[in-house]
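INFO batch 0412 | record 1 of 1 | parsing
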Amino acid sequence: MRLPAEFDLHGLEVFVLTVELGGMTACAQQLRITQSAVSQTITRLEQGIGAPLFDRSLRPLGLTLGPRPARTRASCWPMRAPPMTKCAKGRSSRSTS
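INFO prediction complete | emitting tokens
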């Protein structure tokens, strides 16, 4: 199964932090971005899969049933991203030297 293009590392990080911190405002504060930017990222992810990720009527924000298994897998990806990015940068600098 291929993920929609909207599921980039930033989008996954926003999704995971929003779940872990219980809301978009806390996620925004953690990432030092606006709450609106978090909301727009979540909306873009939801449009990409064609379904809501969060039940916005709950406080703290609650996941809908659909993304629960994906959240477990997605939470590992941001931790792996820095080493992969570093490796990719190392390869590109070697190929140009």
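INFO post-check: Residues 68-74, 82-97 have pLDDT under 50 and may be disordered.
INFO record closed
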